[in-house]
Design goal:
The complex is a heterodimer of chains A (291) and B (371). With 291 residues, chain A is mainly alpha-helical. Chain A has twelve helices and two strands; from the N terminus they run ααααββαααααααα. Chain A is globular. By secondary structure, chain B is an all-alpha fold. Classes of the chains: A mainly alpha (291), B mainly alpha (371). Chains A and B meet through helix 3, helix 4, helix 9 and helix 11 of A and helix 6, helix 7, helix 13 and helix 15 of B.
């Protein structure tokens, strides 16, 4: 029983980190109808630059965070300008393949420039833990849960109450219609990708300490996040968080009971089980409602 | 009828399908089309003769690359059938081919005779592809892409980590069977077998997409609902496409495993999936000839890179090329001649319209003449 509850606690923390990642995916998808499969690699790139040039030189961690967010935003903007914009109004699969390829370019470049060794990355709030009774939660986990919760609230407000947020939803729903009523969609699209990239930088900062920094560090992560997004529907931010928490807990339990060589099958298993449980389609209806 | 197609087109699920019917070929080619069957037979015969001549005369390296090319033709056609004609976003081609390769290798290592092992591997891959098809019946577009990407990653991880069965990162070596190749040496044997396989798959796929299968696919791409009103059953067609494509992938996997006498996780990774997509897109989505062209690119490119001394990170080049191809040549190399042929008239019309625009300006603003 004790291990089960501890697994749920750790799973919720891990799920919060996943939620943050899923968040970036859903945000960009919600505004531009593009699934950014390069999201994880943007986080990796930011973490790499920080782990090689910034943290060894004892830069204050808060400043490192700011720089990483800036790097993420810059790479997001670059992706939008170089890949997404020239594709124009290409079909769904074209854009999916393009972002998949972009992710591979970024990953290959990271490996080429900085090698395939693992790099150390410091914990933002130290390695301390908080005990309550016989259960343990690390400071880092607590920080992640806090940041995620804050972002969920902030973004819900953003999409419901601010002009920019509403404009982003309008752009996703009907681009031409949004342009007709005066939405500056080109600018908004760039802004969306910058925010998405910035979120990737933030994820890199929070995920890097437990992951170690290596070119493929986000691979398993991003797939878990994609599975989470599939569970809830790509268009729904609260759904994405819920899906991520489910996957986080499932991941902890799988590490308890399933041999590690089958770990990579987890996202597939979750998607399959969800399909069996809700054969009418897990995501499609929710996604339609959310737009 | 035309009315119906018109409304179906406005409700296209998959955006790219603006030209479902190929434009009529230029005048000199029209005569040839009447003798298509004879031409195909003649071409096949010529290909067989040229292939045998090549296998007997070329150096063993070239024979090996040739065999790889044949296997890639099968993979590319398989992916093109599913992704191009079937409009299913399935990002798992590397894993599916890997299933064929691994199941063949594992069976042969356990002492199964290669021929029944190959048949079993093809059937197994076909069944696995049908398992992948199950989410495809429920999920649309992007969600199917995600589910299949999860399949790809899951299997990649399994190939790499399940040491007991797949040999893990080390991979599995296939035992060489002495004297099993008849009059051929090992490379020639696989060249001939792969060549026959590729030719049969090529002719079969061509026939399928030109016939009622291709028409059904086109109808389903345009609008599932409109197709259903014509009596087409989307589920049945989708399953059929997955089964055919899976069997082709399995065959290609067997051939690839046999040629190198080795299977390893890297050969069936997500990077590989991207390379297969590159072949389809560079060649031409929904084009059989394009698939052959794309396979040629996908095989020659890595060899060329190795020749230039660049071996550390091929996927960088593949991925970058993919982006460039998607942006600049979305319809593939097969359309290049047609595009080049259309270039003068397009330039002329461009110039014409610009002149017209200038003339228009000139009429309003005095002092501007068309320059």
């Amino acid at each position: 029983m004790r291990t089960v509850i501890q697994a749920i606690i750790s799973g919720l923390a891990q799920g919060s980190l996943l939620a943050l990642l899923t968040f970036g995916l859903v945000l960009v998808y919600k505004a531009t109808n593009v699934l950014n499969l390069a999201h994880g690699q943007i986080a990796t790139l930011a973490a790499f630059i920080a782990a090689i040039y910034l943290t060894p030189n004892d830069m204050p961690l808060l400043l490192v965070l700011v720089v990483m967010i800036a790097i993420g935003a810059a790479v997001g903007l670059l992706t939008e300008q170089v890949v997404i914009r020239p594709l124009g109004r290409a079909s769904l699969w074209t854009v999916v393949l393009a972002t998949l390829a972009t992710g591979m370019v970024i990953q290959a470049l990271t490996g080429l420039l900085w090698g395939y060794d693992e790099h150390f990355f410091p914990y933002a709030v130290g390695t301390g833990v908080i005990r309550f009774g016989e259960y343990v939660i690390t400071n880092q986990q607590l920080l992640i849960v806090g940041v995620t919760a804050a972002l969920v609230i902030a973004s819900t407000w953003f999409f419901r109450r601010t002009r920019t947020g509403v404009a982003m939803r309008a752009m996703a729903g009907n681009r031409v219609g949004a342009e007709i009523v005066g939405t500056r969609t080109r600018l908004l699209q760039s802004a969306t990708w910058m925010i998405g990239g910035a979120l990737a930088g933030l994820v890199g900062f929070l995920a890097a300490p437990q992951q170690f920094v290596a070119p493929g560090m986000m691979e398993t992560f991003i797939l878990d996040a994609l599975a989470a997004a599939t569970l809830a529907g790509l268009g729904s931010l609260p759904g994405a968080v819920l899906g991520a928490l489910v996957i986080g807990i499932a991941g902890q339990f799988s590490s308890l009971y399933v041999p590690s060589e089958f770990r990579d099958l987890l996202p597939l298993a979750v998607i399959t089980v969800a399909l069996l449980a809700r054969p009418q389609g897990i995501a499609v209806r929710q996604a339609e409602r959310a737009v | 009828m035309t009315q119906l197609v018109g409304t179906a087109e406005s409700a296209v699920v998959e955006g790219a399908d603006t030209a479902p019917v190929a434009p009529p070929p230029p005048a000199p080619l029209r005569g040839l089309q009447q003798h298509a069957t004879a031409l195909r037979l003649g071409g096949s015969l010529l290909a067989v003769i040229l292939g045998l001549a090549f296998a007997s005369m070329a150096g063993s390296y070239y024979v090996f690359v040739g065999a790889q090319f044949f296997a890639f033709v099968i993979v590319t056609l398989s992916l093109n059938l599913l992704f191009g004609y079937g409009a299913q976003i399935v990002i798992a081609q590397g894993a599916v081919v890997g299933l064929g390769a691994y199941s063949f290798a594992i069976m042969v290592r356990h002492g199964v005779h290669p021929i029944p092992a190959a048949v079993a591997a093809v059937l197994f891959t076909m069944l696995s592809s049908l398992v992948v098809a199950l989410p495809a019946l429920r999920l649309e577009g992007l969600y199917l892409g995600i589910a299949t990407l999860a399949f790809q990653f899951g299997l990649s991880g399994l190939f790499a980590a399940w040491d007991a069965v797949t040999g893990g990162q080390q991979g599995l070596a296939l035992p060489q069977v002495q004297g099993a190749h008849g009059p051929f040496n090992n490379d020639q044997f696989w060249f001939v077998v792969s060549g026959i396989g590729a030719l049969l798959v090529l002719l079969g796929t061509g026939r399928f997409v030109r016939g009622s299968g291709g028409r059904a696919m086109a109808a389903l791409r345009q609008s599932v609902y409109a197709a259903q009103t014509l009596g087409l059953r989307p589920v049945r067609w989708r399953m059929l496409i997955f089964a055919i494509s899976g069997a082709m992938s399995g065959l290609a996997g067997v051939l690839l495993a046999g040629q190198i006498a080795f299977v390893s996780p890297a050969s069936y990774s997500t990077d590989r999936t991207l390379l297969f997509f590159l072949a389809v897109i560079v060649g031409g989505v929904r084009s059989v000839a394009g698939s052959v062209l794309g396979a040629l690119v996908a095989v020659v490119l890595p060899q060329l890179l190795a020749l230039l001394g660049y071996t550390d990170n091929e996927s960088l080049i593949f991925a970058a090329l993919m982006i460039v191809a998607l942006i600049t040549l979305p319809d593939g190399l097969v359309t290049l001649p047609r595009r080049l042929a259309a270039l003068p008239s397009r330039l002329a019309s461009l110039r014409g319209s610009r002149r017209a625009a200038f003339a228009d300006n000139g009429s309003q603003e005095v002092g501007h003449d068309g320059k």
